[in-house]
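dumping these here so i dont lose them again. two proteins, back to back, each one seq then structure tokens. dont judge the mess
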Amino acid sequence: MVRIDQGEIYDSIKLDIKDKKILDILSEDSRTPISQIAKKVMVSRDIVSYKIKRFQNQGLITKFYTRIDYKKLNYEVYHVFFMVDNSKGVKDLVDTLKMDSRTYSVFEYSDHWDLEWIILVKNVQELDEIVTDIQAKFSKTILERSTMLEINVYRSIIFSYHFNKNITNLRKFEELNFKPDLKDLKIISELSKDSKKSTYEIAPQIGLSADAVGIRLKKLYKTGIIRKYTIEPNFSKLNYTWHTVCISMKHFDRREENKFKNFIENQPGVIRAAKTFGEWDVLLYITTQTPKEFHNIIKAIKLEFSHILKSYNSFVAYKEHVFNPFPKIIIEDFEKEQNLLKK
């Protein structure tokens, strides 16, 4: 994900071509050695190191983290949208969502929906229990709710085509009958805090040698449990606006779905697109620097898919309150399962 905070006033950061190239490389693989980045950008190692440190000091890069395929860990990703009464307990609600061990992210919006809660759960029964408890606890705060299950991700990048027109998400994974153990999960957890950590830094935390950590990392990466090593940028520093768009189709068969998927790949500004199950069929995250850019994207979608487009809602993100790329529930559930097996 990316950080967004429209409530703060930031000095605009200007990026040159080399800055953008470095950010692109880090967004696709934040573990890329400085020497390789320097070679690709055609500058010295010292300049690359200086620029990366400057990005961090400026608050443009807020985190180096690891993207995970949660389905390979037997978790489903749900998006729960809330409309709330802003005069009654909203801060307590936000704090509760932030502290939940299942929480991936919490967004605040300035439109119809006030909050988006992205969580990891094992099944719909578990989701029902969680959401029912939240609604009961905050019955005077929550006015309306909508829930979407993320089925298939079409597109997931950090920067839009404003930065790089040649970004691709295509990577082949080895389909192995591989189930990570507790040490694997702890390695992922460490890299989710800082994806640039070396195997030598991780090893003492796990109780393994650096070589053993390296072997496990390669397997986690090859099987696609680790999707990529990347960065969390603060888009507010670049004067970007984050739009979330939910789209409902009259019908959405495989032919139309493939057409939409191919269409969205060529739309600048769309950094994430997913097929969903629930009230809406498609969820888009779009970042733009001007209202016109956003208008052009929506207009293009409406023109291309007028024959199946039923309705859509769009809302502007005000702030991301929390981002947990490796929610605590993953290790908690694993340890519970192991304890049950021992009994």
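---- next one ----
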Amino acid sequence: MPTWDEVREYARSKYKLSEEGENHFKMTWQFGNDRLQAIIVSRFQAFDRDWADFASACCKKDQMSPEVALEKNWNFAVGAICLDREFYVVRYTCQMATMDMEEFELPLSVIASTADQIEQEFAAEDNF
């Protein structure tokens, strides 16, 4: 079971973090086609447990209908599309108590690539 500080240090050792706070950090994932996708990893407490949250914006609210978002969710093995005010976000949450570094790497890459695929499909530009 890694601590939040260990997760953050692991991320620092492998990636360039573009933003850091006490309970979150942000990085930009770069794909081979020169597309970029920002992903935020944060921690929070719920049900007397520590959780890690992976989130990446994918398009504006008016660029994808709620029905399409729900249909896309059905096919995801990792993560879900959520509405955060005016933006759809691809998000995945896991318990810190059972997380290992593989469970850090997998959602990190899946959430970033899923959000980028949705952005390519629905957004006019590479905004996120």
